Amino acid sequence: MEDLTASWQSLNQDIITCRACPRLVSWREQVAREKRRAYRDFDYWGRPVPGFGDHRARLLVIGLAPGAHGANRTGRVFTGDGSGDFLYEALYEAGFASQPTSRHRDDGMVLTDAFITAVGRCAPPANRPTADELNTCRPYLAREFQLMPQIEVIVTLGQLAFDGCRRMLGELGYKFPRLKFGHALHYPPTMTHPALPHLLTCYHPSRQNTNTGRLTQAMLNDVFKQARALLS
Description:
Helix content: 25-40%
Shape: globular
Order of helices and strands: HHEEHHEHEHEEHH
Distance between the termini: 29 Å
Structural class: alpha/beta
Number of helices: 8
CATH superfamily: Uracil-DNA glycosylase-like domain
CATH topology: Uracil-DNA Glycosylase, subunit E
Radius of gyration: 17 Å
Number of domains: 1
Largest sheet: 6 strands, mixed
């Protein structure tokens, strides 16, 4: 039987050492050198960010990419910025996270039955990776998905994460109708492919969405409560 621990270690090492996209390499390292004033004494991660959580999870959460001063600083997805504050609060309320805040990678956070990843692994300029960059990065998501055959529910955070998830599944050979993105949509296996998990869509907990009220904490909490109910 394949040693899954070794497979995860190999995958994470491949992610962390990736330098495939020159624009992203330059930006993430520039941000790590120059730093934000509030974090001038912080040792920035400045590298691609691997997924985080329970490798035996039934819930897979897919975001867009590391924040320049969030995961690019801390080295853990959705950690150290406002998006993470919203996400981990929702995961905590639904019983997936051990604490409601995620500030740094050594804060003791434990995810149970949940794994968080992203379609992009490097912090992009203006929070917007190019299509080519996402295409280059997508095989990492596919490898994670293939290492977790027990996944029963996928939550995608934002349009680009949703599109990346669809493309990844299509590239793995799953054929299903074209799906639209919106907040709190549910695509069960009967609407996609009988071998696929339930797919839930959600607005991304970006500052643009949360500051304008397009996505509230209650709305995000409800998505993860629905995910929990689908696992029960």
